[in-house]
Amino acid sequence: MKTERSKTRLSRALGVALTPKAARLMEHRPTPPGQHGRARTRTSDYKTRLLEKQRLRAQYNIGERQLRRAVKQAARRPGKTGETLVRDMETRLDAVVLRAGFAPTIYQARQAVTHGHIRVDGRKVDKPAYRLRPGQVVEVADRSKAKTPFVIAATGAHAAAHPSYLRVELPDLRAKLVRPPARKEIPVICDEQLVVEYYAR
């Protein structure tokens, strides 16, 4: 319970629902936690950029060094660095498991990967940061499909509208990345350009 409460507080602080429970709570208490949550305070440019960086980190459940490294990699590629960053993050294995509806939160998607329940092209991959390429197939291991969390997932309990860059066969707990995602298709609340500016300071 303590861990879940901390995620709801973090969700309110960032203005992003990180779990279904946080989403329900924020419908009634959308302001940041604490006695000054409703107060309007001045924010500096640094604080604004810091908030966007924290939002992005929280939505993908990644560490500071991971995000810093991802920004550097995105900066070396053509196109807008911010959009490249988010598109690249969206091809992480744990993010695809989440978007496919195999898990209700990024935390449980990461756990499913690290515990060896996920296969990529028939091979076990237990690294959440594994980057998928178009054409690769992600599925729950046969021996894991009878486990309660995946039985629930197969009914569509966690599935919203699947993004069009994924082809999902939910009853079989299988998904294919058909193409790179476009930024407008990625349901991440963040001004990624401010994240790039944060690391460029």
Query: How many structural domains in the coordinates?
Result: 2
Assigned CATH architecture of the largest domain: Roll
What is the CATH H-level superfamily of the largest domain?
RNA-binding S4 domain
What is the averaged pLDDT score? 89
Q: Mind summarizing the main beta sheet?
A: 5 strands, antiparallel
> Structural class, from secondary structure content?
alpha+beta
Count of β-strands:
5
Which descriptor suits the 3D outline? globular
Tally the helices: what do you get?
9
Summarize the structure.
The chain is an alpha+beta fold and 201 residues long. It is 46% helix and 8% strand.
Characterise the protein shown here.
With 201 residues, the chain is an alpha+beta fold. It has two domains: 2-23 and 43-89 and 187-200, Ribosomal protein S4/S9, N-terminal domain (Ribosomal Protein S4 Delta 41, Chain A, domain 1), CATH 1.10.1050; 93-179, RNA-binding S4 domain (Structural Genomics Hypothetical 15.5 Kd Protein In mrcA-pckA Intergenic Region, Chain A), CATH 3.10.290. It has helices spanning 2-14, 20-28, 45-60, 64-75, 81-90, 93-99, 106-114, 148-154, 192-200, and strands at residues 118-120, 123-124, 137-140, 166-169, 174-177. A five-stranded antiparallel β-sheet has the order 2-1-3-5-4. α3 packs across α9 (192-200) and α5 (81-90) crosses α9. The protein is globular and about 50 Å long. The termini are far apart. The mean pLDDT is 89.
